[in-house]
Amino acid sequence: MFNAASTTPGKLLQMLAALLLFAAIMGVILFIAGRLGRGKRGDKWVGYLYLAPAVLLLLVGLVYPGLRTIYESFFDAAGKGFIGFDNYKTIFSDKDELTVLRNTVFWVVLTPFVATAVGLLYAILVDRSPFESVAKALIFLPMSISFVAASVIWKFMYEYRPDQGNVKQIGLINQIIVWLGGKPVQLLIESPLNTFLLIVVMIWIQAGFAMTILSAAIKAIPDDIIEAARLDGVNAWSMFRNITLPSVRPTVVVVLTTIGIGTLKVFDIVRTMTGGQFKTNVVANEFYSQTFRADNQGLGAALAVLLFILVIPIVAYNIRQVRQSSEA
Amino acid sequence: MFGQPTSPRFRAVLAGTLSAGLIFSVAACGGSDDSDSDTTTDASASAIDCSPYTKFGDIKGKTISIYTGIVTPEDTPHINSYKPFESCTGATVKYEGDKSFETQILVRAKAGNPPDLAIVPQPGLVKQLVATGKAVVAPDEVSANVDKFWGKDWKAYATVDGKFYGAPLGASVKSLVWYSPTDFKDAGYTVPTTLDELKALSDKIAATGAKPWCAGISSGDATGWPITDWMEDFMLRLYGPEEYDKWVNHTIAFNSAEPTAALDAVGAYLKNDKYVNGGLGDVKSIATTTFQDAGLPITEGTCFMHRQASFYAANFDKKTKVAEDGDVFAFYLPGKDASSKPVLGGGEFVVAFADRPEVKAFQTYLSSDTWANTKAKLSSGWVTANKGLDPNNLTNPIDKLAATILLDPATQFRFDGSDQMPAAVGSDAFWKQATNWITGQDTKTTVDNIEKAWPK
């Protein structure tokens, strides 16, 4: 019954069956809720019952695997012998793993700030201009492309062809270098340049997100504040410094942290463009290759835990900011 | 309050409808299961002698599931080659191809949901599957077929702790060098028969100002693997099959003298700016050129030789004629001298997870010469080391060349070493370090790092 169907009608039938099953389960919950929802504390019980499926799925899908991963991170490659903190020691002492950490730092420090800065600047520049919607659509478009597709596009941008006889460049960047009289460069091999070139892709994708959110925040600044500032005769810089930025500060923080979380987990771009070769590896990709390719479950789990630990403070800060800004 | 139904009558109706829905949905799931029971007999698949399979009892109407990494378009000849078995026994084979077979098969075995049969492309993975405790020892009939049709070495690859788990299926020859017969003829070059001649030929071509070799190792997260093949080929040629086995089994360290020298010998070709990289750039460009593109400069006249397995034929343009008198062909990467014939290759093994009669019968069929010849007639770009194979049944010239090499009694076949090494080396450190090596890391550091990654 749980085998995947292989023909189209079979698949449709299976989908229908799954929907019916879902409806049936929901119906059963509603039915029980109807019985329970009487008496003095009825509402409370109904509330718990409605929460139950979500809590159950969280336990099965998130809490249990999370705890299990932490447990496994203390075991060796085969997942059999207990080795204490050795996997963590490897992460912080092995030369390759240190490169992974270094790159992750580059990613997390650069991407959120540059993407947010670009987004903010762009939002301010196009604000209330006649071609605002077109300009916004342009920079927002990359958001709608998947990371893998974006990586493939940028791989062509960075593509290299040798400086040999009649061989022609097919990568834009190298073609520009050749037009300017330079020699084509193997952009994705030169370390640490290659890591920064990968970061550019992430910024290209995320700047649109930052711009959209920040633009909305800028539009929400009350007109009377702006008018008052104008009457006081502020120049553009001090308008930005003293009016716009303080007003959108909570939003800037939310955007920064959201992009930061996404960046920590970056995997697709690295895997698609370099496969983590040429010293461009990051934690998420290394975690995948250790677990599924090198068959080193322990080290893979330890890397996953490290990623989890790194994300927690940003997530906590993000949630606090979201709460504060919605209260304000 | 929450809008739940309060009338008892409505609730009863609702509950009734929902349980009916549940029953219906379960029935629907059950119904969508056997959607591909297509047993029409192909005209090309001739009738076969059924007696070897009927002795497993009446298996009419039974189903055997087979799970593989072989997907479109290579799956069609596979599925068609099962038809003679299906029509004579009345059993149905359910074929499931999956690109992520190599990780999924382990997941399925560990989760207790394995297929009846799996086509496993690496001896290392066979070992991992046996370690899950779900694989079943091959039946005596299969074992007898393998004794009859394959060399001892092939049987050993699928033998774990003295127990034999699966018959080989297909095979590939990796010790091949692609070249252009027309370009060779025009320039007056001859196919080398010893390693020294190969070197002399490379020097001769390099002296004209052309780059004799082209190579590429980019392959997603498996980047680096073509270098492992190069190194295995040279290990096999310079030190012989016995030393090669010691190296693969880690009886000698990865950073001991012989492997280090073998990698240096590869370096004399791949890290030699005079030799590479025809039509593609300098030495470093090997790292970013995909292995699929790496041999194409041969057809453009910017490169003369490209070392890659028999399956590379599929990468050439449809208009390119792959034949000894055509646009491209391959020659055997020569041994140290003309008398030794070491061959590096790969292959698949059929591992069973069930021992029902129909599964045993089908395993027996797959390990027979009958199947090998049926498959040979149906497919192109496929060979096997099954000695029962009549090479004349193969349709394309490169398959014939590969089969001739495989079936030559003088051939000393060795399985791809990185496929047999532990995953931490064979599919991780070896690839990564080889890539670092081609982008500038020295040989000593490279072999030291790989040795360090070997699981203790």
From TrEMBL, chain A:
TM segment ranges: 12-33, 45-64, 105-125, 137-157, 196-218, 248-267, 299-319
Protein name per its UniProtKB record: ABC transmembrane type-1 domain-containing protein
UniProt keyword list: Cell membrane, Membrane, Transmembrane, Transmembrane helix, Transport
Gene Ontology biological-process annotations: transmembrane transport
Locations listed in the record: Cell membrane
UniProt-listed PROSITE patterns: ABC_TM1 (PS50928)
Taxonomy of the source species: Bacteria, Bacillati, Actinomycetota, Actinomycetes, Micromonosporales
InterPro entries referenced in this protein's UniProt entry, alphabetically: ABC_transporter_permease, MetI-like, MetI-like_sf
Domain ABC transmembrane type-1: from-to ranges: 101-318
The family this protein is said to belong to: Belongs to the binding-protein-dependent transport system permease family.
GO cellular component labels: plasma membrane
Domain of life: Bacteria
Membrane topology: Multi-pass membrane protein
CDD domains from the UniProt entry: TM_PBP2
From TrEMBL, chain B:
Entries under Gene3D superfamilies matching the protein: Periplasmic binding protein-like II
Keyword Transport: yes
Entry's family note: Belongs to the bacterial solute-binding protein 1 family.
Domain of life where this protein originates: Bacteria
This protein's record includes keyword Transferase: no
Protein name according to UniProt: Alpha-glucoside ABC transporter substrate-binding protein
Organism: Paractinoplanes tereljensis
Keywords from the named record: Signal, Transport
Lineage of the organism: Bacteria, Bacillati, Actinomycetota, Actinomycetes, Micromonosporales
Leader sequence residues: 1-28
